[in-house]
Design goal:
By secondary structure, the protein is an alpha+beta fold. It has three domains: 88 residues, no CATH class; 174 residues, Orthogonal Bundle (Lysozyme), CATH 1.10.530; 82 residues, no CATH class. The chain is 37% helix and 11% strand. The protein is built from 15 helices and ten strands. Helix 3 packs across helix 7 and helix 14 crosses helix 15. The longest helix is centred in the C-terminal third of the chain and has 15 residues. The radius of gyration is 25 Å and the shape is globular. The termini are far apart. The relative contact order is 0.08. Bound molecules: zinc ion. Zinc ion binds next to loops.
């Protein structure tokens, strides 16, 4: 950062790392501003950055921890005159200026406004940034998926509690209806979030999840990281929107709306510049990971059938633009995966008999017949 608070990237820097315990020395050449120290957790090291002319900056000592947010800040002190460095000083050839992704930092108001600019949604930004930090959701692409889904689920952060259509709360989900940005339900989730942050959201305290922004956001981030499917992080970091959508929704309701929010967030957060994502993922960022690559097509037969239904003009499911080709892919994967299984949707007892559970209104057998029929017609 220069005196006018502009940020720059200095490329091809030499860094010396001395392990203070064993006094072993290592010189690294880095080009992305990051020093790999994962194998040194627990060690105390001394880091020295060299200018291109070979002169060292003052060394910094650092205890390597496994915590993600424990950054060490090394300052390169150079004079910048009209964008050029003085003689014999490092070449500064890349201005960052907005080209930084939203990993490990707050989302700015300007960025958030590119996703949605209602005053209601904007009033949640501070709490989003705080809870992301508190619960260690640091990656730009994961924040983008989280924000896209929660904006959709709550109509732009307007609906903080579930409407029950005349029923009383004691009749549903052990007395704990949907609240907060992810509309968490059931006592076990209210209890789990409370334990995680040492607070109590049981009984009369349950309304705090809807009334206090901090907990509306915090409960959602907690659920995202700890939900029954083992957390949504790996799917979000693969840009697997088909998987994050079906794990949250059970199907693909509102898929296009979620996709639109996601696209805006990917652009607003400069995610194409993200240094943590590999090239394969960066290449998916104009939309989302294809169905063939999605984890759904690897091992989820019900959700593959769902992908067929939501893309099929005759499937009668709403929220996804119809696409015959995608419908075929979904049906085909479903049939391949269930060739040797009689009850891919699970079973239940009905009148003393074991019968198939229904998925999206279809028993396993009805789903197979429907998929076969549609594959022939499409
Ligand atoms: Zn990033």
């Amino acid at each position: 950062m220069d005196r006018n608070h502009q940020d720059y990237v200095v490329e091809n820097t030499k860094v010396e790392i001395v392990a203070l315990g064993t006094q072993t020395k290592k010189i690294l050449s880095i080009s992305n501003g990051k020093i790999p120290v994962q194998s040194r957790v627990g060690e105390k090291i001394q880091i020295t950055v060299f200018k291109p002319d070979g002169s060292p900056l003052s060394p910094e000592t650092y205890l390597v921890k496994s915590l993600k947010q424990n950054n060490v800040k090394l300052v390169l002190d150079v004079d910048v005159v009209k964008g050029n460095t003085n003689q014999d000083k490092p070449t500064i050839n890349k201005r960052i200026d907005n080209a930084e992704c939203a990993c490990n930092r707050d989302i700015t108001v300007e960025e958030f406004k590119k996703i949605t600019n209602t005053s209601t949604a904007l009033s949640f930004l501070n709490d989003l940034n705080q809870q992301f930090k508190k619960l260690s959701m640091n990656r730009c692409l994961e924040k983008a998926h989280f924000i896209a889904h929660t904006l959709h689920e709550t109509a732009g952060y307007r609906l903080m509690e579930e409407g029950l259509g005349g029923k009383s709360e004691s009749e549903v989900y052990d007395g704990y209806k949907g609240r907060g940005l992810m509309q968490i339900t059931y006592k076990s989730n209210y209890e789990g979030y409370g334990k995680a942050i040492n607070e109590n959201f049981l009984g009369a305290n349950k309304v705090r999840i809807a009334k206090e922004k901090k907990h509306a956001v915090g409960s959602a981030v907690w659920y995202w990281l700890h939900s029954k499917s083992g957390g949504l992080t790996p799917y979000a970091l693969n840009n697997d929107l088909i998987a994050t959508c079906s794990l949250i929704n059970g199907g693909y309701n509102g898929f296009d709306d979620r996709e639109n929010y996601l696209k805006r967030a990917i652009s607003a957060f400069n995610i194409k510049e993200c240094g943590y994502l590999n090239k394969k993922i960066i290449a998916t960022l104009d939309s989302y990971l294809s169905f063939e690559e999605s984890s759904i097509a690897q091992n989820k037969s019900g959700e593959s059938f769902g992908w067929g239904l939501w893309n099929d003009p005759l499937g009668k499911k709403k929220g996804k633009i119809k696409n015959l080709n995608e419908a075929k892919k979904g049906y085909m994967r479903f049939l391949e995966m269930t060739k040797t299984t009689t009850f891919p949707f699970g079973t239940k007892k009905e009148g003393g008999q074991i019968v198939s559970r229904k998925r999206y209104g279809y028993t396993a057998n009805a789903a197979k017949l429907f998929a076969e029929k549609r594959l022939k017609e499409l």
